[in-house]
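A student in our group prepared the protein record below, which I am reviewing. I have pasted the whole thing underneath without changing anything:
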Amino acid sequence: MGKNYDFLKRTDLSVNDDFLKPDLTEVEKELNEAFEEKERREQEAIQRDIERTEYARQTAENTSYLPAMLWAVREGNEINREVLDLHKEMLNVLTAESKKEAESMVTEIANKAKNTNDSINTAISLYKHGNSLIQFMSNAGLFG
């Protein structure tokens, strides 16, 4: 029986030393992988911040013209409103009793175009509109 228990009496544990020592290379490898993953995530976060900053800068540059553009649109809407009002007024030519009265109305309304921001084009357009109305009325025999 004594022979079976000889290994318990041994004082030389060198065989078991390797078993008890943790595998440091495996632990180091896992730590390095964790550190590399952390570094990769930090670099990605930095890169995202850089890209966001660049995107914000580009957006600011690309939208810097918007106030001027809005002003132009508002100005254009105002011109269009003025021109539309003059064209509506031009329809009053249809109420003229004579060709001379109609021509006078066209001239008066077209002269109002001088006060608009787009006076030349508006005046030309109004004269054409008024003359078309006069021609229509003449052809229809609406003048006395």
Q: What stands out?
A: Helices lie at 6-9, 14-20, 24-62, 66-90, 99-112, 119-139. The chain has two domains: 20-62, 66-139. The CA atoms of residues 10 and 16 lie 11 Å apart.
